[in-house]
Amino acid sequence: MRFVPLKSIEQQDILLLHRARELAMKQRVAQSNQIRGFLAEYGIVVSKGAGSLEKLPEILSEHKDKLTPQAHHVFMQLHEQLKTYSKQVEHYTKQVERHAAQDARCVAIQEIEGIGPITASAIVGTVSDASVFKSGREMAAWLGLVPKQHSSGNKVILGSISKRGDSYLRALLIHGGRSFLKSCTNKHDKKSNWANNKKLRAGYNKTAVAIANKNARTIWAMLATGESYRKPQPVNAA
Questions:
Q1: Where are the domains of the chain?
Q2: How many CA atoms lie within 13 A of 235 on its CB side?
Q3: C-alpha dist (Å) from residue 16 to 19, 23, 92, 200
Q4: Rounded to an integer, what distance in angstroms lies between the CA atom of residue 117 and that of residue 216?
Q5: Are the C-beta atoms of 11 and 82 separated by less than 8 Å?
Q6: Do 130 and 143 touch, CB atoms closer than 8 A?
Q7: Are 147 and 162 in contact (CB under 8 A)?
Q8: Contacts of 44 (CB under 8 A, 6+ apart)
Q9: Is the Cβ–Cβ distance between 237 and 188 less than 8 Å?
Q10: If DSSP codes are grouped into helix, strand and coil, which group holds residue 16?
Q11: Is 14 exposed, middle or buried (0-12, 13-18, 19+ CB in 10 A)?
């Protein structure tokens, strides 16, 4: 049984920013989907994407013949609400990035490939003391980034990842893994070569999770020992 360590008031403030940002993002997505659905009922189809509804006033002007004055007024109000959610997301994101730039641990963690200010801030806010984990693998298991064990005797059977722990932090690490995987295609350092080879063997998504696992272990080592990140060196093609 693993007990949850007490968080300091500073950590609670950091996580409050993340939770508020996450809520605003969910509300923005829900509002966008609702507007698209209402428009479709009037025969107006808007493409998916975060920026497609930014030009909603122009879209409404182009389809005046399909809308009554009342419908146009309601859509403009919904658009104002959507802009409010977008401003909230931008505001909370800037605050999180400001914290990540001021905290020495966040600055150090961001040296890892695939780790940005949002992820670094969330980790520092969530993991109060990395020494409570005996190893990096234990921290990765706590985040649900290791396979489930279904082994018996000498037969080892590994399933999908356990998805235990903080789903928000796990999602950030996996998104970071995808980001690194996209950027390492033409790189030839040790970590990039490992990722490219694993992608060929296991596929894109499993490799992204493997990178997230590796990054979680690296973060544990940095937080537990205070060491700086040693970037992978290019491999000489002999």
A1: 1-102, 114-238
A2: 11
A3: 5, 10, 10, 40
A4: 15
A5: no
A6: no
A7: yes
A8: 59, 63, 66
A9: yes
A10: helix
A11: buried
| Token digits of residue 213 | 């696992």
Residues recorded for the chain: 238
| pLDDT of amino acid 236 | 66
Q: Which two tokens stand for residue 22?
A: 């996450």
Residue with tokens 């996580």: 15
Whole-Å CA distances, 23 to 78, 87, 93, 95, 201: 18, 13, 12, 15, 37
> Could you tell me the CA-to-CA distances from 159 to 130, 162, 166 in Å, in that order?
27, 8, 20
pLDDT of 238: 45
User: Running along the chain, 238 residues long, what does each successive block of 10 average in pLDDT?
Assistant: 73 95 96 95 89 91 93 96 96 96 95 95 90 88 79 64 81 94 89 92 92 94 91 71
Q: φ, ψ for residue 157 (rounded to 5)?
A: -125, 120
pLDDT of residue 1: 56
Note the pLDDT of residue 217: 94
How high is the pLDDT of residue 174? 94
